[in-house]
Amino acid sequence: MAQNLPRKIRVPVHGVLLLDKAAGQSSNDALIKAKRLLNAQKAGHTGTLDPFATGLLPLCFGEATKFAQDLLDADKTYETVVHLGITTETGDTEGRSISEREVAVTHEEIEVILARFRGDIDQTPPMYSALKRDGKPLYEYARAGITLEREVRRVTIHELDLLDYSSPFLTLRVKCSKGTYIRVLGEDIGAALGCGAHLQALRRIGVGNLSLDGAITLETLADMPEAERSAHLAPVDALLSSFPSVNLPESLAKRFLHGQRLALGKESIALPERTGRVRVYRVSDGCLLGTAQLADYGILAPERLIAVVSASNV
After folding, report:
1. With contact defined as beta carbons under 8 Å apart, do 241 and 235 qualify?
2. Fewer CB in 10 Å around end: N or C, the chain?
């Protein structure tokens, strides 16, 4: 009779894994495998990538999960290949082709159309998406042949650059606000060109200030010795690099960690020029203490606090 092996005890792991997700894998499956490889107690991702998409998927572990929302709200940057002339059910390669048209557009015509999609635009979320209606994701309705009304949302396309055009393939780089569907953008550009389109490939290359520099695949992580894997985690405050910092001496750091509001205007502490959200550190060892709201007159109000304060958090 086979013996039941004892379950491996998960350990506290704190930091951010910059994962280069492979095609054909869901974001949740990638998270589960990374959590197992790092033997971590707590983990979460910072927004999903479609299974067919590749690229940057920051995964948060331990104390870093407290700041995952910051990347959910951050701008994203993608490179995508748009296949002109063919539309599909899903807006990408995973769906059945539903129409085909001749492609006869020039670089000049493409540039004129792309200009329409820069700045604030309206998008209708696709039926093949994880948005929920009455507790069910829209893609479940779509697979059942049901189309529901979806509320138009306003998104911002900060940058939209033509990298290459070799008919029928259009290669674009897109920097956009949260909630933007690149599949819908590709379809809408194809419709505006009069030939239709779907996404042939999609790769995320940036999330906020994070990029693919230093990113690692699950295969590479799995191939290395277990003791070396945690060394590939970025520090917790990698998620907060866009916020100005405030450094507190030990006496104020203790009060801050107890959730007390601090009147820093009365202290000899260098403060950022602008108010708003800041990351807070302890001067003595540079440890991250958490985030706070800095108001007028140097009032520092704790927001999210680090429970495990150590040099490993920075």
Report:
1. no
2. N
Q: Of 20, 29, 50, 134, which one is the catalytic site residue?
A: 50
**50-95 per-position pLDDT tens digit:** 889 999 999 999 999 999 888 888 999 999 999 999 999 999 998 8
**Is the bond into 6 cis (omega within 30 degrees of 0)?**
no
d(CA 269, CA 92): 53
d(CA 190, CA 251): 60
* pTM as predicted: 0.88
50 as an active site residue: the answer is: yes
Alpha helices in the chain (DSSP H): 27-38, 68-72, 107-116, 138-143, 182-193, 218-223, 226-229, 250-257
Strand residue runs (E) in 50-207: 54-61, 76-84, 86-88, 97-100, 119-123, 132-133, 136-137, 153-166, 169-176, 197-207
